[in-house]
Specification:
This protein has helices spanning 5-10, 28-41, 49-54, 60-70, 77-92, 101-110, 123-131, 136-139, 157-166, 180-188, 344-354, and strands at residues 16-19, 115-118, 143-144, 173-177, 192-195, 211-212, 237-249, 252-254, 270-277, 283-295, 298-307, 318-329. Helix 2 crosses helix 5 (77-92). It is built from eleven helices and twelve strands.
């Protein structure tokens, strides 16, 4: 969070919210990486992921022109769209809501706060993605794609049009975005903006945002003059189950298994709790601390696992699967993972919560 975020937020009463889709509400950014990789392999090309990360948030029209030029593809923009669209649509069926997304959407809907969806994707693609998420179609009466305005992000056009359709002043709008392109568009529109970067390696570039969060679960609507969340249970937040697999060793989870839809999103950061299982039937109650730590020139995800019940002596060098069911809070991004330790009060909160019926999801643990 930016140091002056609360002071800035307090100056403006927000009455409407505009949400981005890809990378903000859905994990489609991860899926899209796999699609482009597979597509380029068909032309004998190797994707440059660093350059592709910089294109996050681009409109489809600008994106296809950049890809054709960058990889020297001897095809037309129309041919690129025709060939890659079926690949995208197949992966969209696997898209999942990011942690906190359903919570926020339902909260805004229940509190009758006007909100809209504004994406740099084409409208038909936005509607297709929304239709695959249970209940989302009814939640979003206003859906905007880049083809409905003169220019997509970083132009402010799409946000200005969203405010116009909601019938609210631009100064009273709060935008939630994951890409720098989207943040620039929101600021150009004269709106407040919360950035939740889909790539943690780029989080330091979002200083123009009014607030920067690691996850939507850290959003506090009341800071912006909106009704607060009312779903806290015993001091923690229930979440839709997040599944993680890896190799447990010396208190840490290594070699995460999964890619695409099963990959752990960058936005899963902070202290969580839930259930863990090795290859034996025994199920443990655990706390999990997820941080990002700089190692030489890159950021690495560090996952610390702490058993919290009496039978919690975990075995080293074994495959472990975890189902996270609750969120305790975020970390101080200025501290290293060694300083962001799991606190004793976190253990007490987790133990208390896991005795509640709201968190008894361990019967849903998938088998190895």
């Amino acid at each position: 969070m930016n140091g002056n975020a609360n002071a800035n937020a307090a100056d403006t009463h927000v009455s409407a919210v505009i949400l981005d889709l890809d990378g903000t509400l859905l994990n489609t950014e991860v899926l899209n990486k796999d699609v482009l990789k597979d597509y380029l392999e068909g032309y004998g090309k190797v994707v440059d992921q660093k350059k592709e990360d910089m294109r996050s948030g681009m409109s489809h029209h600008e994106f296809r022109l950049a890809i054709i030029k960058e990889y020297d593809l001897l095809i037309t923009p129309e041919q690129f769209t025709e060939e890659i669209r079926p690949m995208y649509r197949e992966r969209w069926l696997l898209a999942r809501a990011l942690p906190g997304a359903n919570r926020l959407i339902k909260h805004l809907h229940n509190q009758k706060v006007p909100f809209a969806l504004a994406s740099n994707s084409l409208t038909r693609n936005v509607e297709a993605k929304v239709s695959h998420q249970p209940g989302w179609t009814k939640y979003f009466p206003i859906v905007l794609g880049s083809d409905q305005v003169k220019s997509g992000k970083p132009s402010p056009d799409i946000f200005l049009e969203a405010a116009n359709r909601m019938g609210v002043n631009v100064a009273s709008c709060l935008v939630i975005e994951d890409s720098l392109i989207g943040v620039k568009a929101a600021k150009a529109a004269g709106m407040k903006v919360v950035a939740v970067p889909s790539l943690q390696s780029e989080s330091d570039q979002f200083s123009i945002a009014d607030m920067v969060l690691h996850t939507l679960l850290d959003l506090q609507p009341e800071v912006w003059g909106l009704p607060p969340f009312e779903d806290w249970v015993s001091g923690v937040v229930p979440i839709e189950p997040v599944h993680v697999r890896g190799l447990y060793k010396n208190g840490f989870l290594h070699e995460l298994e999964g890619h695409g839809a099963s990959a752990l999103p960058d936005q899963v950061v902070g202290v969580y709790f839930g259930w863990a299982q090795f290859e034996s039937p025994k199920i443990l109650k655990i706390l999990m601390s997820i941080t990002w730590e700089r190692n030489c020139c890159c950021l690495e995800k560090v996952i610390h696992v702490c058993p919290i019940d009496e039978s919690g002596e975990a075995n080293c060098d074994q495959k472990m699967q975890v189902m996270l069911v609750g969120y305790i809070g975020g970390h101080n991004k200025e501290k290293s993972s060694s300083e962001n330790k799991i606190l004793e009060e976190d253990k007490v909160l987790a133990m208390t919560a896991l005795k509640s019926s709201a968190f008894t999801h361990h019967s849903c643990m998938p088998s190895f």
